[in-house]
Each structure stands twice: as structure tokens, then as C-alpha cells.
Amino acid sequence: MRLLVFLLVFAGFSSSLFSQQVTHYDLEYIVSPSIPSPQKETLEKVIVEEIGKRTGFHCKPLQGWVKSHPSVVVVIKGDQQIQGREIPPIVQDNFGKLMHEGYSIISEDNPGQEIIWIAGADPRGALFGIGKLLRMAEMSKGKILLPEQIDILANPEYSLRGHQLGYRNAANSWDKWTPQQYDQYIRELAIFGTNSIEDIPFQDNDQSPQMVMPHTEMHREISQICNNYDLDYWVWIPATGDLSDENIRKAEMKQHEAFYKSIPRLDGIFFPGGDPGDNHPKYVMPHLKDLAALLHKYHPNAGVWISLQGFDQEKVAYFFNYLQENSPDWLKGVVYGPSSPPVDLERQLLPGKYKHRLYGDITHTVRCQYPVENWDQAYALTLGREAPNPQPYYYARIFREDAPFTDGFLSYSDGVNDDVNKIIWSQMGWDSNQEIRDIMVEYGRFFFGPEVAEQAADGILALEQNWIGPLIPNGSVKATLNFWKDLNKTNLQLGDNWRWQMCLLRAYYDDYTRARLIYEKSLERKAYMLLKNMKTIGADEAMDRAIEVLELAVTNPVLPEQKVIIEYLADQLFKSIGLQSSVPKYQASGFERGCFMDFIDYPLNNRWWLEDEFSKVRKMANEQEKLARLDLIIHWENPGEGGYYDNISDVSASPHVISKTEDAIDYAWWDNGKSRKRLSTQLFQFSPELEYSRLDPDTDYLIRIAGYGEALLRANGVRLEPTTYDKELETFKEFPLPKELIREGKLKLTFDRPDESHLNWRQYSKVTDVWMIKR
């Protein structure tokens, strides 16, 4: 690395910044006059403000080519000269290599003057070139360090690289934002290569208690911000009403026209076929055709897009037949999202004239398109659906799997909790072969500073490792917390940085949850040991003693001082970025919307279930009934000698589960997340797969299933018939297993999916527990 450009002016004495304290620096810049307003002025602000806030440098416009004044010069393809100076051949030679949005960065070191040339294929390319320079520069008070020689040329791999930042009450953070905060966040996404922002103008128009301005005003502000940066402004516009009703349809059209007319920029409208909405495409397509005509009246170049989310086979067939027969020019493309047909099949069926966009859910952890794999139940019950979820390697893998069938993405996001994932996808959209850690180092360098960039990158990657596999044996969770604690002690200047606060909070929260899990599981084991004395001391006395032990989780909690730190960080995040991690404290829109603080002490054992079961037992008519029910409770997970039990989606208690499908693991959401069901009941799969390799071929087995709804069970491909078939939660279905199916001692269990397309996915049949009982 070397020092770029900077000589100081200090009492008439010039010296290297390496050795001299200074009070004032000058860095000059010029942005090509070929870039139109307001983009030109915006690029100048990005240079001045982002360098100034990190270095203290006073950046000023270049006034003539005066030697010894270091400069950043921004030009675009087609420029021949700037301020009377010919653009050097080393810069012009790259013009022909630049594609739309591409850029080159070249250092020119003339005697007495250092210049960084940023050449964009167009104004956007100039923005992304500035972004790259800011990401690679090591900026701290009084200095900027850059490589000795810079010669970079970059063109984006994918044309669509965007994120949804919908201003609505349901968002977990940005419903509290000001236009200035939106501007800064959109700028930061652009610096990492984002070219599109998606808003939500119609749905969820209740005024949030956090909102600083009405919906209509903020939508105009976001549209203008996008225009200032020359980023595409999209909107997500579902129709939840019945489009076969002409009055409803006319009302929709009127609402759309008022919106189109009111905003300065609009580049795309995305109509989700379902989630929400259930209109048939025979009504949707004529409606979108009319919307397209209305849209082009105010925004002639804007595109209309549709997703097939929630479409059954008949609707999918109708849609693609419509495209083949009509080939509408008003339709720009199709969006692949949660509950769409498979992404590769959708691209295969889509005529070549239409674009294909990925609407990837990078914000949710459960009950979503990409649930966290091998996630311990303790995290699911506490961190929930929208906790801070930096998962660089996981989302990079998803991108590499799905994006090649598309022209790029605008991600599904509901808040800042997925900030790292946004950056990963934005950069993968430029080059999907990048090293993930390199992206994280740039993230750390730009947002935290060069001194801590490498360590912060490793710390974020360690947070991802916290979530992989069973929590109790994962000792690295404690190591990750210690790493972040040490890092924080030496970087106290980052205490007000919200991204830093999120990392610290996750490190503390993960470790707190692990400590609680170890403690509360041990209390449950002690409670069961006490219950085993029931025949000696009586059922009621045994239950009393068990409850007394279980209540220690409340009366003598683990790590109370650590919980105080977590509460402090959550409070700081609400103040800094509006992160609403609690309904009662921060007025979040709902418990499922990132409210991990409302679940920080959710029981990690079956204490609540046992309390309720004990209440039922106490009401039983005689002691024998009580003892029989307590015996079932004690031995719920015990399959008996020679048997096997799987808590179907608990990564620490499902040794035979091999399911790897998209719907492999999920977590129920009942009673606003405060369900008192058995913990095993709250985990499920729709169609799990299990394998056994050491069954006794000379023994009769009974397969017992718990769950909800249907269980269409196959053993080594053969459908089994049940002898007991209860469909409610925490009741049993039982299937005798014919010996001839396990002659080699091996067995694979699979489940056919019943046709439940008429139901909401939350009502689909589920499997929660599987026993293999040796008779």
C-alpha cells in the first residue's frame, strides 16, 4: 500500500502524512460535465462526504490542473477531455471494453501530481467506480492508503441487482427512517454495486407509530433519491381484491394512476400472482395490460413484471399459454419468488423475449423460501424469523444455485437485519466467483475502518458458524463472543455504529441462548428424575417437586448480567437505526417481525408444556390415571429397548433424518410465538425422509408418527396402512412394518404429499416425531 495524493499544507511546510500531525488537507476532484443533473451533483456529494467523514479531508472541486494537488477525476465513455485536458490514452483505451454500468479505475502518477481516473461506461458506471474506490481505500483520520498501482476494469455479470426497502409498518426498522437515512442507506448499497430499489406503496398503509412522514410523501422521496443516484425505482403492487369485480378493478386503476403521476421516477412494477392475492391469470393479465398503458403514460420506459407465486398447475399452464398465444410486448418479465414453480423450469417455459428476475428472500430465517439449514431449535424459538442474520456463505451458495437461471435479482427484505446478505448479493451480482471473505473484508474496511477490517470480516463469518448444527456442543459460540468482546474493547469508537451494534448483539445473544439451553435442559432432566419417584411419593407430590426445579429457570436465571448487555444493545439499535426488536417496548408491528427481545427468555425445555400437562393430570379421577399419564410424559421420547426416536427437525435429536429439500425443516408459529406445546411439536417437516441401517430383520416393528393432518407413509417405497390414525397435534398414527421390507436390516421412510393446494401452507399436513418401536 502507499499513500495516495496527499501532501499537506502546514505553515508553508510540506511533509509526508506518515510523520506529521496536520490540521488541514486538500483533495481535489472533478466529475464529468457529461453526467447530467442531478446525478453529477450526487456523485460529487458521495466523494466529498464519504471521504470527508472518514479522513477529515476537505475535498474541493478541481480548479485547473495545478501540480501537487492530488485529484480524483471521474469521466464517462465518450469524453475526450476534461477541463481542457485530454483524457490520457491509458484511460481511453478502456472505454471500448466497458459494458453498461461498467467502470475502470487507473492511477496516473505524474511528477508532482497524483491522479485517480475513474471511467464509467455511463453515469451509473461512474457511481460504481467511485464505490469501488471507496471500498478499496484504507481511510482513517488524516490519510488514505491505496495500492501502488491501480488498473481495474469491471463489468457486471447480472443486469438486475436490487433490494426491497418498502416503506411500510411491517418493516422491522425503516418505517422509523427519515429521508436522509434512506438516502444514506441507498448510497451505501450503491457503493457495493446495487442498481435497483423496490418500494411498497399500497399494501400496509397504516401509519406506523414510528413513521416521521406519511406514506405518500416518503414514496416520492425514495423515488427522487433513486433518481439522484440514477438507480432504478421499482414498486411491489399486489392486488388483494377480486379483479373479476369491475368496480374493484377500477378502484385499483385509479390508485395506480394517482401514484404514477405523483413520483419523479419509476422503472418497474412487480405484481405478485399470490402471496398475497389469489386472482386467476385470466383476470390478472388483462388488468396488467391496462396498467401498462397507464404506467407508460407517465413513465414510458417502465416495465411490468409478474410472479407466479401460489399458482397451481392449471394457472401456470394458463399463463404460459397466454404468452405463447399473445406474446405481449407490454410485459417485461417474470419474477421467481417463494412458492413459484422451480426456477429452472420457469426459465425453460419462459419465451426468450422476456427477462427473468430472482425475488430471493434473504431476510427471513424460518417459514420462508430459504430457511436456515441445520438450525438449532433454541435459536428458532428465540431469535425468530427476522433476527440479524449475516450468512455470507449460505446466501452466496443460494445465489450461485438460483441466479444463473435469471437476469439478476431484487431481493425480498423487511429490514436492516439482513444488511450483510444484501451486500453479498449485490457483489455476487457483479462477480459470482468472488471470494466471500474478500467481500467481507471490504465490508469491514468501508463500514468499520481499515484497522479492524480483517478481524471484523472473520467475526461476521464466525457469527454464521454459530448457527450451524446442534447448539450445545458448539463451543465456538463462546469463542465468537470472546472474539467480539476483545474487538470491541480496542475499537470503542465504533460503539455508535449500528452495524457494529448488530454484530455485538448477535454474539452476546447466541452465547446467552446456549448457556440457557444447557441450563434449562439440565433442569428438565432433574424434573423427570423426580417424576420417576411418583409411585413412592404420589403423583401430586412428584409434580410439585418437578415444577419447583423447572421454575429455577425463572427464579435463578443464568447469566443475568449478559442479558442486561443484550437489552442495552437492542435499545441502542432502536435509537440508531430504528430496529424494533420488541412489540411492547419499541412498538413493532407484530411479534414475528424481528421481535427477538420478546423471546429472549422463551423456555428452551418443555416447562410450559409440563405445567399444562400437570394441570390436566391433577384433575384426573384417581391415582392410577395420574400415574399412567405421567408415565407417558416421562417416556415420551423413549422408543423402548431396540427402538429409535427422532424429533424430526431438531438437529440435536434427529439422527435418522436425511431430508434436504427446501421444505425440510420449519418451525410453527402459534399464539404469537408463545406456544405452550411440546418443543418437538413446534418443529416439523412436510415430507421428511429417514434412513435406518441396523434394524433386526427377524423382529416386528411398529412405526409411530406424531404431527398434524395426513401422513402418507412409505417404507422402502411401499405404502403402509395404519392401525391408528389420529390427525391432531400430539396424538399418534401407527403403522405395522412388514418384516419382508427389512430383510437386509435397512429401511427408508418417505411421505407422499397430499393435495392440499386449496389450503394456506400453514395448514398443510406436518410430521413432528417418528418412533421405530420394537415389539
Describe the structure.
- With 775 residues, this protein is an alpha/beta fold.
- The chain folds into three domains: 2-154, Chitobiase, domain 2, CATH 3.30.379; 160-444, TIM Barrel (Alpha-Beta Barrel), CATH 3.20.20; 639-775, Galactose-binding lectin (Jelly Rolls, Sandwich), CATH 2.60.120.
- It contains 23 helices and 30 strands.
- The strands form seven sheets. Strands 18-17-16-15-14-13-12-19 form an eight-stranded parallel sheet. Strands 3-2-4-8-7-11 form a six-stranded mixed sheet. Strands 20-30-24-28-27 form a five-stranded antiparallel sheet, with no helix packed on it.
- α15 packs antiparallel against α16 (498-531).
- It is globular.
- Residues 1-24 have low confidence and may be disordered.
Features:
775 residues, alpha/beta, Chitobiase, domain 2, TIM Barrel, Jelly Rolls, 3 domains, 8-stranded parallel beta sheet, 6-stranded mixed beta sheet, 37% helix, 17% strand
Mean pLDDT: 93
* Separate helix tally: 23
Which structural category do the helix and sheet elements fall into? Answer: alpha/beta
Question: What is the name of the CATH topology of the largest domain?
Answer: TIM Barrel
Number of strands: 30
Instruction: Please give the radius of gyration in angstroms.
Output: 30 Å
What's the story with the biggest beta sheet? 8 strands, parallel
